[in-house]
Write a sequence for this structure.
């Protein structure tokens, strides 16, 4: 779900802001987008209501990360019995003008997949960001 819609309360809003700052510390030229999803019924039917989704856009295509935009999905699980929220992991995906170029999931095996993966240095920077998000959401 769009991060702008998940920013309910000071704690979650602060964590969203911190996760944006963490990303920008790795990729300073990225511009955050708190509403990466369109607000139409078809798109909303595909969105995970428990995730916090943030887009990051670069000024043009980046050779080092092999994309123009990165979607970050901070995965949470809402327990219906006690209304508690549990951090699950982070999914990231890089997109170019032709669609998804690569994907990394910390929920699975922390391995990049896709046709046009980032260079090794950028892969490590993205993984470092994911580790920092783990520390932020799962202290």
């Amino acid at each position: 779900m769009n991060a702008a819609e998940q920013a309910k309360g000071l704690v979650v809003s602060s964590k969203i802001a911190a996760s944006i700052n963490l990303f920008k510390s790795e990729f300073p030229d990225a511009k955050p987008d708190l509403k990466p999803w369109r607000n139409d019924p078809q798109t909303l039917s595909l969105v995970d209501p428990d995730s916090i989704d943030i887009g990051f856009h670069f000024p043009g295509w980046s050779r080092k990360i092999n994309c123009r935009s990165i979607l970050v999905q901070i995965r949470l699980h809402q327990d219906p019995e006690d209304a508690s929220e549990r951090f699950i992991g982070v999914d990231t995906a890089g997109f170019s003008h032709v669609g998804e170029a690569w994907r990394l999931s910390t929920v699975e095996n922390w391995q990049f997949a896709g046709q046009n993966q980032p260079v090794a240095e950028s892969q490590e920077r993205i993984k470092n960001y994911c580790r920092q998000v783990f520390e932020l959401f799962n202290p």
